[in-house]
Amino acid sequence: MDKVVILSHGVTSNLWHMLKYGFTYIPKGFSILAYDHRYHGLSEGETVSYGYYEKYDLKACVDWLRNRYGNDIKIGLHGESMGSAIIIEYLGLYDDVEFCVDTCGYTDFREEAKFVLREDFNIKLDIIQNYIIIFASVINKIKYGWSFKQVSPIKSIENTKTPLLLIHGREDTVVPFDMCEKIFNAKKYGIKDKYEVKKAKHTTTLDSDEKSYIDHLYRFLESIGI
Q: What confidence tier does 1 reach under pLDDT thresholds 50, 70, 90?
């Protein structure tokens, strides 16, 4: 095995959901590593941290692959929603893989929380949103050891050099499309590409236009020599 893609699923999802992405890589000679994040599927854990602890779990997967198959193995990361945030958070620390594909990932946990408060709970005032987020973050820090500001993919991506492909649905009502544009603009170094799926909602980009999705993915892989 000389190249593999690690699949990173979203919140409330599991490894089986990610296999639809994995199958797009098989014709290009990739093997697949899919696993359940902590507090999901068959994995243990008390709670989910939306990328804070999960990035270290992902590091364990990368290290396992290199220890088993050698340091020359080419590794890519492909995430969806929270799974995308996890792989971007990973790059902020390690930046040691060949490429990364972010499908409908969020910029910052606090910004995503504000969006949910506004759209799902009709809390429009910034001051009330901020109060709720600060209070919840403090409680979370005390109970689980991480604060909301510590999950910020848009900051993690700034200085990474790993080639990045961003894919996002224009009609996403869970993670708004403008978050994709912000992450794209925040990446300062290395190859980056962006693919907008006009009629896709959250996590439906592949299902909405499978041929175009795969064509764009393959062009990206060819552009980085994989």
A: confident
